[in-house]
Amino acid sequence: MVHPSDIAGPPPEETPVPPELQAALSALGLGSAKVEPVWRNEAGGLTFAVIPAATVEPGSPEYFVKWNPVGSGESLVGEAERLRWLAGKHPVPSVEAMIMAGAGEILLTRALPGRSAVSERWKVQPDRALRALGEGLRRLHDLTAADCPFDWGVDQRLLAAGGSAGRDVSELGEAPPIDRLVICQGDPCAPNTLLGEDGSFLAHVDLARLGLADRWADLAVMSLSLEWNYPEYDEAVFWEAYGIDPDPERIAYYRRLWEAE
Ligand SMILES: Nc1ncnc2c1ncn2[C@@H]1O[C@H](COP(=O)(O)OP(=O)(O)O)[C@@H](O)[C@H]1O
Ligand SMILES: [Mg+2]
Q1: What integer pLDDT is reported at residue 90 of this predicted model?
Q2: 229 is in an annotated binding site
Q3: What is the CATH number for 76?
């Protein structure tokens, strides 16, 4: 398996701003803002911090903007829809604009005052990071799930993996019975949780796949992401912060499913 940080992570500083993104920012009155690359994902999508020329707090971003080449996987349209639905229910970025621009999709959100759990600041304090990751998922999973219109269940994922993605899903085995159906983050990796200045859970980002699923779909992958991002650190802190003991069978199934995708 490819270690995800080999393909996703902070891009080089000189990463160019795609022309259609620069044009969209100009149309939004942000043409003179500083646009700094912060993240590149596995599908070639880019995230930039947008720092308007005249900010209240010099140097701090006012917006983040995601740009995805069309057809690169998850759509930013689906992410914008989920962010809007979650507003007021759970801390997530608020949507300022969702634009289809030629070969790319553009999602502009208001900057949240936090840093990702894998930022330099929190990587050296894994105790804080793991606690916040556990607290964040617990908070999301404790929301009322009944009215969630989005699905991240096994059937839908198997169909997508076996269908358009053409993966062989026959080796996965039977899905374990559902423990608790909750609203899952859907891309539960450490970089998609933001921590506040005090080290507590601030918000979730990257919610294109958010939907109803067994809570172990999130827990299995988040705990895997801990091994990648905080090697040699005891993951017991995460399980304690979430408030559950690891379930090896469900963890194994949902990791296999994740890897098959
Ligand atoms: N509104 C926001 N406020 C603060 N940070 C953000 C915001 N949106 C994105 N980020 C930062 O940018 C990174 C990349 O965004 P993300 O949505 O995870 O993109 P990707 O789908 O490429 O992984 C996040 O890990 C987070 O650090
Ligand atoms: Mg992400």
Answers
A1: 98
A2: no
A3: 3.30.200.20
Distance in Å, CA 206 to ligand 1 centroid: 6
Buried b (16+ CB within 10 A) or exposed e, 61-82: bbbbbbbbeeeeebbbeebbbb
Q: Same domain, yes or no, for 119 and 106?
A: no
Q: How far is the CA of 171 from the centre of ligand 1 (A)?
A: 33
The protein residue whose alpha carbon is closest to atom 16 in ligand 1 is 206
206 CA distance to ligand 2 centroid (A)? Answer: 5
* Alpha carbon distances (Å) from 32 to 11, 24, 27, 28, 100: 22, 12, 11, 11, 21
Q: Structural domain of residue 13, as residue ranges?
A: 4-110
Name the residue with the closest Cα to ligand 1, atom 26. 116
Edge-to-edge strand list for the sheet holding 115-116: 115-116, 193-195, 201-204
Indicate if 42 and 141 belong to the same structural domain. no
Residue of 38, 64, 75 best suited for mutating to test ligand 1, as the one with most atoms within 8 Å of CB: 64
Residue 166 in 3-state DSSP?
coil
Domain endpoint, select from 88, 110, 132: 110
Domain count, the chain: 2
Report CA dihedral (81, 195, 217, 40) to the nearest 10 degrees. Answer: 70
Active-site annotation holds for 142? no
pLDDT tens, residue by residue, 141-158: 999 999 999 999 999 999
What pLDDT is stored for residue 56 in this prediction?
62
Residues 91-104 have a mean pLDDT of 94
